[in-house]
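Exercise 7. Given the components listed, write out the predicted structure of the assembled complex. Treat all entries as one system.
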Amino acid sequence: MAENGATASYAKTIEPLLIKYCYDCHGDGMSKGKVAFDGHASPGDLVGDHKLWSVVLKNVRAGLMPPLEKPRPDASEIAELEKWIKRDAFDLDPKNPPAGRVTMRRLNRREYQNTIHDLMGIEFRTDEEFPPDDTGYGFDNIGDVLSLSPLLLEKYLKAAETIVSNAVPVVQWVVPSQEFSGRDFKRKDDAGNARRLSFYDEAKVERTITIANPGTYRVQIELGVRGAFDFDPGRSRFAFSIDGQEKKSDEFKWDDGRRIAWSTEEKWTPGKRLLAFDLKPLVSRDQKKSSVDMEVVSVRIEGPLEPEFRQRPENYDRFFSGESPSTPEERRTVARKVLLRFATKAFRRPVDPAFLDRLVNFAEGEYNAPERGFEGGLARAMVAVLASPRFLFRMEDTIRTRSSKGDPLVDEYSLASRLSYFLWSTMPDDELIGLADRGQLRKNLSGEVRRMMADERSREMVGNFVGQWLQVRDVEGVPINSRAILARDEGGSSGGRFRPRIELDRATRLAMRRETELAFDYVAKMDRSVVELLDANYTFLNETLATFYGLTNLNVKGDKMRLATLPEGSPRGGILTQGSILVVTSNPDRTSPVKRGLFILENLLGSPPPPPPANVPSLEAAEASVKDHEPTLREALELHQKSPLCHSCHSRMDPLGLAMENFNAMGLWRDQERHQPIESTGQLITGEKFSNISDLKRILATARRQDFYDCLTEKFLTFALGRGLEYYDVETVDQIVHRLEANEGRFSALLMGVIESAPFQRRQTAKLVAGARADRKPEVTSKQSPIHETDTASSR
Amino acid sequence: MKPTPLHPAEIAAARHGSLNRRTFLRGLGACLALPAFESFRPLALQAAAAPASALTPGGAPLRMAFVYVPNGMIQSTWWPGGEGSDFKLAETMRPLEALRGKVQVLGGLDHQNATAGPDGAGDHARASGTFLTGVRVRKTAGSDIKAGPSIDQLTAQRIGHLTRFPSMELTSDKVRKSGNCDSGYSCAYQYNLSWKSEGTPVSPEPNPRLVFERLFGSGGPGERANNLLRRQKQQRSILDFVLTDAKDLQGKMMARDRAKLDEYLSSVREIEKRIELAERFQGKTPDPDMETPAGIPANYAEHIDLMFDMMVLAFRTDSTRISTFLMASEGSNRPFPEMGISEGHHNLTHHQNNKEMIEKVAKIDAWYMERFARFLGKMEATEDVDGQSLLHNSMIVYGSGNSDGNRHTHSNLPLLLAGAGGGRITPGRFAKFGGQPMSNLLLTLADQMGAEGIERLGDSTGRLKGV
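Answer.
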């Protein structure tokens, strides 16, 4: 609608509403929270203030505005306001919500690692090699924020070299081999292995190997002497034998990290061979000062060395055709074939012919270089592919259509990548690309999504989305001081030597993270209501976590996490009572009801309070004013809230957080803090009263369900799109929420709602969204036609 | 110059005729009291083109570094008594007692752009974002971060071509919270000190192994220079290839995508420049006679020490002259169980004058200072090409962009300047500047380094006189 129409409808229907309900605080000279409806230069400015109207919409819908004690508009008045904001102020057409435009996304660390795994068949640890990705809007896959510094590009170049040299064989044939580590050599009684053998203990470790073919074998052994930092007088004799016959031996003394290589050649017939290491101490234990150990690092058996037993190297067929061209023309043809296959897969879309020509030229220059070899030259071209922006960035294209309605659809290759990076955090597999090749992906969308969700790789979406949305990724790293926490629960602030020690160890933290992930995974896979994320009578436990929570009567045994139905009346079940969330929202030494309340507002209800002002007094300051006893957190918070400056936000956060006070900073249940019983009653800012955590969960799952749908949809959509949501996305979000409502909150409604939404399916090109940044110029479409032009054309 | 006392392990190693990695690292200072290796002699000595001010009177290069400590300092234990050369170190600086004559305590320098101003909460993000840029960083959580070029990068852009690496950015913080950072500010402000330009931070490297391999090449001693050279040559052919490709793509993109590709292109050019630079230094790549560090040590103190060792190594071999080191990101809430402190650093700094909490923060302040003192000790024990100590020929700023962590103030910042700048600056003093922008100090240091044409930085009002 034209702006004039919007200002007219504003004056007619909206302004009277605002005067009636809002002007007391936000008009006629009042501007509480720096919001005023009559401070704009012109009516056009006011109507065009998208930021203001987004806030109004959010606050009115969440019941935060007008405040509880003031007169509030009725349902039809609210509906009128909503409709006006969306239709007039935002100029949105419900049939064609704008797609918006995601900035070309660089693969983040996780996506890069997974893509390399699928493309090259090897593991490359990006968490060790690359700097962490910047996050925006709470996620690390946001196109705008994923920058590319020279340092990172340098790392990409180095990674491309390393990956290709580890994954791509540059010879046609290799000698068969098998390799063992120290762990594979065991003591007879199974009481240890050859990863660590003390110089002070006599030891014999062994391993039986099977030889299939007769011939000459080379046994290569790598040993390491591992001494403690300080000198130790220990010495030993170490020997290697085959079938009881000694082949190598030597004497060793203290050293730090010295490596020793032994090698021997054997003629073997088919059958079993017993390889063994013997350690004899030469210095008695009573002289031991620090320590010194022998480590068997690796034992590699190569053979038969005779040429008739040679094999194709591992991974050879993944990259090469097996042909051995001889003339320059033949070589070029084979190079072209091999590189077309590789680059198409790596770029996740058809390769530009001009690019392919250049790539083949490059390879030719490389394989003609002395000592490089044909495979070696092609491997260099593969390095260039992995360093190309076409690999590192997700390039998208749209389908050109004659119809002018809405933004154009992205092409099927782009859709395949959008799906696979969303659900798997990796490149599309052959089936997705195959469908895109035939222009059949959109037609089979829901079936493909079902297949992808059933696939093991969908764990990536769960881990990456839940890990960031609910911050459970952090549970494994946050510092927690169990002593201080337990002391607080029991009253004293120090001492307590005889208390049973409960530690939040690695295994427990891992189980906590998995608990939250599996709860989400279960809702997703079983297509249950997303409301069960908030309130459920089940959770996921292994023995470690069940014991930690004190749920010992559920009879959960072993390391494997499994679905457990909770006993009647158990406070557990749902996100708010999971250890991961309880821990990441705590301080190292105590709970933080403020952080917990903020967490709920930000991540579950989608209505975070504004950030705190500068120089806020701390809780500890409030505590200091209580002289006669050590105050509970509730008491301290109540003192803190007395300041009007603090009250406006804390009255929203604190009641939520205080309802969770029965769970300490490690996520353990407690009934008291500092000798006083925990009080968990409270009231939400929107008026709902609750007496404990179970009540609160129920309220969130019923009365505030709409807020949760809205918040979850916004987070999931942000993660799926890789961009922050804009004011105009409200229509898309509303439609998905509506779909959730209509389908009893089923996960599939959310998932398909996101995938079928305009921003996921389409992409803004020439048309500017009203009020969007003026720097978005129309896209110039590719001059070169893709190789598979005829195939993709069928989908247009 | 006093030799560092030998560690028992070094004695043990000496007795057994071997010097392993750890003893080498630990004894780095001691070893380097030997005359500097001739092969490490800076090229600048031969290059007449170098601006005169980048060299000391003795002809050695000047080095500049910035070491960042988060969350401010306890004021009462930080500021010395007295003034000028007649001053008494307070508790936090006690580890520096032996090096008292080599450091200058700087009082009365401010970062006004780190205060709340119109932006409200977020003093931690601003403290580190402003520290070396002097600008008011844009309050945004996502797409449009904006700080400014930082002084180290501006200097590196001018004199970085004189060394194999224009600059080196380090950190010993590896924990990064997912989600948003301080009060609506992007994490970029808290996790980066160095900014190449307004929108591009330079991520610091936490892994000492990767730092080492970048400086000297991979592999064992003796084979690194060749590995490095081979890699550079190979990189060059790949770079040529992808550069053409990226240029080709560039014309087909919309504005924001093109901006991403521009990042790619300028990074490619940057690396090409670096390789060209490396080629000019061909045959001059130093190869320290030590094993490559294994990775990030589990122990925090060891991690910090190892990163400092990398800095000493880079300076001593004249691989670079400019470095930044973010010991922990601003707002770091790390507890210090190694000292029996279970509460997080950041939480503690909001002590509201609780005596017990103040004492704990003071202990943390001193703990960081001890790490710094150890580093300065090594710099002092290392002889430079002109016979002076490496520390003498350096200018190392240590401090925080918050003054009082409790109240989030940004005036009278806790700052130290170690080293004598080759004789141009006068350490052994407590200098009070009475409320000038810290940006003035940064400009003065850049001048000393020979970086020409930097007129202003953030809120600077001129140069700082009397350093």
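Discussion: Chain B touches chain A through 93 residues (CB under 8 Å). The longest strand of chain B covers residues 429-437.
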